[in-house]
Design goal:
Spo0b-associated Gtp-binding Protein, Chain: A; 2 domains; five-stranded mixed sheet; 14 strands; binds guanosine-5'-triphosphate; binds magnesium ion
Length: 330
């Protein structure tokens, strides 16, 4: 329920009315058809209390405006239809472009405007045409299709190929208990673990399902979760040192991120060179260090290097959040 396609339909405007007034002693008292009311908008509003899209239906229509009456009475404006969505909802159009990011409590996005009400015949009266028999029909509301998706707000994202040891790491550093097994694609949903520090601060670390070559083209499991990567402040590339050619792993991971969204692989990041306890694993470290990224040597299994990893992860994510704040002020 962290993704949904919805069609939104603004309410139709009410029709204008054709009517002529006839009162005592004046048979032709002139046109008195009122205007139609406006149709309602469909609006998305982000609230913290809502956690997923399970209550959001796939077609959402707003009410129609009321028709114009006689005696110049306007039709009723329809109420807007407000749909509550979770904080961190991203709204994309069908070209997958992000058009709105509802990340603060209470913010709203007008997804489909209602049509305006039609004018009644009274509005068409002019010196030449004293008894117009025309009125406008109400305009149709807007119709759009959007994709709603939920971005998890983790500080740190663990990115890696299946079996690299991401879940083992998360188990070792937090109380989260994602499944660990020696086959690929063990993790099918992102897990978030909270790392507790002595100074009472916390860091949310996301264990994301393994990426493979072609994930950005929707191969394997990773695609649906690449969206979560966008909001992580720090990316940790978890590289399996016991596998062939770690540098190639890193390039492939970066490539998939970049294919998914340009600029994603240039986020603040570091390399977690994992499974350092395995034989020959140290042979590849130099290669990784030459990439210019900081390399942290770890073993999720023996616990080696985890303390250093946590200290640096905290420092780096704080640095990047300061950077972000400064950018926002600019
Ligand atoms: N020797 C050694 N084995 C490890 C280490 N970390 C993980 N493993 C083993 O590697 C295998 C895969 O570990 P997982 O933590 O499930 O890997 P993952 O990256 O979460 O894999 P997916 O969920 O499939 O993407 C398991 O058999 C782990 O026991 C490590 O530091 N050293
Ligand atoms: Mg896993």
């Amino acid at each position: 329920m962290d993704w949904r396609e919805v069609k939104v339909v603004g309410g139709k405007g009410g029709d204008g009315r054709v009517s002529f007034l006839s009162v005592y002693m004046i048979e032709f008292a002139g046109p008195d058809g009122g205007d139609g009311g406006h149709g309602g908008h469909v609006i998305f509003q982000s609230v913290n209390a809502v956690k997923d899209f399970s209550h959001v239906s796939s077609v959402i229509m707003a009410q129609q405006g009321g028709p114009g009456g006689n005696k110049l009475m306007s039709g009723k404006n329809a109420k807007h239809r407000i749909i509550k969505v979770p904080l961190g909802t991203i709204i994309r159009n069908l070209d997958q472009e992000i058009i709105c990011d509802l990340s603060t409590e209470g913010s709203m996005f007008v997804a489909a405007k209602g049509g305006s009400g039609g004018k009644g015949n009274a509005s068409f009266k002019n010196p030449v045409q004293q008894a117009p028999k025309v009125a406008e029909v109400g305009a149709e509301g807007e119709v759009f299709v959007y994709n709603l998706e939920l971005r998890t707000m983790a500080d740190v994202g663990l990115i890696g190929f299946p079996n690299a040891g991401k879940s083992t790491l998360l188990q070792a550093i937090s109380r989260a208990r994602p499944k660990v097994a020696s086959y690929p694609f063990t993790t099918v949903n992102p897990h978030i673990g909270m790392v507790q520090y002595d100074d009472l601060t916390q860091l949310a670390v996301a264990d994301l399902p393994g990426l493979i070559r072609g994930s950005s083209e929707n191969k394997g499991l990773g695609y649906a979760f690449l969206q979560h990567v966008q909001r992580c402040r720090l990316l940790l590339y978890v590289i399996d040192l016991s596998a062939d050619d770690p540098l190639d792993q890193l390039d492939a991971l970066k490539h998939e991120l970049e294919q998914y969204q340009t600029g994603l692989s240039t986020k603040p990041s570091a390399i977690v060179a994992n499974k350092i306890d395995m034989p020959y694993s140290k042979d590849h470290i130099k290669q990784l260090e030459e990439t210019g990224l900081e390399v942290m040597l770890t073993s999720g299994r023996t616990g080696l290097g985890l303390e250093h990893l946590l200290t640096r992860a905290k420092q780096m994510s704080e640095e990047s959040s300061q950077l972000q704040d400064e950018e926002e002020i600019d």
